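#onboarding

Welcome to the new folks! Below is a worked example of what a typical request in this channel looks like: someone posts a single protein sequence, and someone else replies with the predicted structure as tokens. Don't worry about understanding the tokens yet, we'll cover that in week two.

Example request:
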Amino acid sequence: MPANENFAERPGLSGPREPTFRLAPHNIEAEQALLGAILVNNDAFDRVSDFLRPEHFSEDVHRRIFDVAGQLIRAGKLASPITLKTFLGDHDLGGLTVPQYLARLAAEATTVINAENYGRTIHDLAVRRDLILIGEDIVNAAYDSPVDATPRGQIEEAERKLYAVAETGRYEGGFQRFSDALTIAVDMAAKAFQRDGQLSGIATGLTDLDRYMGGLQASDLIIVAGRPGMGKTALATNIAFNIAKAYEFSVRPDGTHETTNGGIVGFFSLEMSSEQLATRVIAEQSGVASYKIRRGDISEGEFHRIADAARLMQSIPFYIDQTGGLSIAQLTARARRLKRQRGLDVLVIDYLQLLGGSKSSKSDGRVQEVTEITTGLKALAKEMNVPVIALSQLSRQVESRDDKRPQLSDLRESGSIEQDADVVMFVFREEYYLNNKQPREGTEEFVAWQAAQERAHGRAEVIIGKQRHGPTGTVELAFEAEMTRFSNLAREDALPDHM
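Example response:
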């Protein structure tokens, strides 16, 4: 290489020339300095190996050097200019042989201390190049789209690619001191002490359920499952409204809000319209039956109660998205947008089976698609550090059993629902099944049925079939069908003494 030629010029180019187009972001000097540091001191590799990959380098020869050096170091061998040269073959390096180029890298190396900073620079530039490629793909697909392709499909594909870049574009993490984890745990306990019900998570407003779960925990995926008619949506809307109604915040020094009680709720209503959902919540809050609200069959007093409930609902942080047929990529993008613009403490999806996956998962079958959806929801809960409540249908095999209480094996379509969920809750109302099998009056069966009906009337069971950080078991709640309202069940030990 001539003395006046810069060592940092792109290997493989015979000399400098005026570019006729914009070059993708890259930093040859950073790549050379980092590779030199690794060849001089293999400890430098350990500082970048958890986030840096060969494909993050802009030059092919640099990818090859990093890959071979990594293989040698992981095998417990020394990676140096001498040990590497036999694995690299011949390359056109602007007049330098491979051994000469490796020796020059080692001579121009940065210190081990700076290795991680150089590695992050290389990684960030690689992410920028990925974004440029995605942008080019979007433009080309829009110009040359097939007749049967829809803009919505292209948007979904672009969102999926961007989400993939966002997921792989992280180099946070790694080990932390246990004392740091202890500080976070103590801080969480202090906040729980200040919060309503003294819970570590967000209170649902249903005391017995909160006692079992400690509230809704951040980053948990909570599945609420049941057969049609059991009240899954009613339970989810009750919990969501209770949380939004209890919302309180404090102002941080930078002017942003920090939730101190309750929370901001996002509700994806994939099945019902926002008006139907609002009618349910109004019925629950006003105590006026939802069918009377729909028919307009209400008295003046009931109308005032409805108006009061509506005024309360207007002031709470409860946001509804009623778009049907969303994909997991679209839902993720909208949830991120809500978190950025309004804040978000709890996310509810009604219901999981109405979500779609990407094109590739659809072509692999419904089981693969549901697996992608549940994995995406769990990743979303962790990313945004909020509890995600997803409703799920159960298979019909429940109906064929004498005891119709659901179990984990009844979850439809994929074992991934049970696997990815932190909590699985089943909603069960025996009253629903008893109503459908009334025997003929005057028989012994009718007397037994009537007794069972009295015991089951107005009661619901929430069966906690799985909980990563707590016990499993059954919580009994009161259920008022006309108002679609779940509430705490009055227990005899909590009732006042009779005079």
